[in-house]
Write a structure and sequence with these properties.
The chain is of the alpha+beta class. Helix content is about 30%, strand content about 25%. It is built from seven helices and eleven strands. A hairpin with a 4-residue loop joins strand 8 and strand 9. The longest helix is centred in the C-terminal third of the chain and has 13 residues.
Length: about 230
């Protein structure tokens, strides 16, 4: 089954329709299928999780930029690193970024497998040893890389620092001291660029499958998250 069929079968669930007024609206299925079948732009290879818009308002590329997250409720501002990495190094970079978080962390799994237009569901697990977590995550590398309905965040609330590997397969780090994370990205040839734009900053589509939904349920149980909702 191609990317297009997986997308419409699994992201737009029963009773839902594809969005209108977008770059895909007047294309034939063959044109859409051809576009969604492209997984490389220059030297950047996408995972199977997401594809950019047909008009390519954002062309995927590798790099990171610094930003600031403003919490409207608390009026607090938190420094952010946001990064994209090509598929061949992406999971390794994610695992490297977990190291500065310490020996014991909390984990949040994000899922939109069963969404009905209401966004996504977050599940959490507190106090898991980092070596145990990493061992489990390596087993589910395929799911975490290629499922457009699965995201994960790992955090140490005592520091506080948080690393997200979201549904778009972007890497996002929150915290007041981000130097060690920037050094990890630089060491992995994910370079700082103030001009970089990310796939979330324009129209894009996600892909998932029944296989990945089943694997998500398995990962949820392995992490002890059954019924633990945020």
């Amino acid at each position: 089954m191609g990317f297009l069929k997986r997308f419409f079968k699994n992201v737009f669930h029963d009773g839902a329709t594809a969005p209108t007024g977008n770059s895909f609206e007047h294309l034939s299925e063959e044109q859409i299928e051809a576009h969604l079948g492209v997984n490389r732009y220059n030297s950047f290879e996408l995972t199977d999780a997401v594809r950019p818009s047909y008009d390519l308002k954002v062309v995927p590329s590798q790099g990171y930029r610094r930003d600031v997250y403003h919490d409207e409720e608390t009026r607090a501002s938190v420094p952010v690193l946001m990064a994209a990495a090509t598929k061949s190094v992406l999971f390794d970079v994610f695992m490297d970024l977990l190291e500065p978080l310490g020996c014991e962390v909390d984990v949040v799994l994000e899922t939109s497998h069963t969404r009905d237009g209401a966004g996504h569901v977050d599940l959490y697990r507190e106090h898991i040893d980092m070596p145990v977590l990493k061992s489990i995550l390596w087993e589910y590398e395929d799911l975490l890389l290629n499922d457009g309905c699965t995201g994960i965040a790992v955090l140490n609330p005592n520091i506080p620092l948080e690393v997200q590997f979201d549904e778009h397969k972007l890497l996002i780090v929150y915290g007041n001291e981000l130097t060690s994370f920037a050094e990890i990205l630089d060491d992995r040839c994910v370079r700082n660029s103030d001009e970089i734009r990310f796939i979330t900053e324009a129209e894009h589509v996600h892909s998932s499958s029944e296989k990945y939904q089943q694997q998500f349920e398995e990962l949820k149980m392995r992490l002890g998250m059954d019924g633990h909702y945020c």
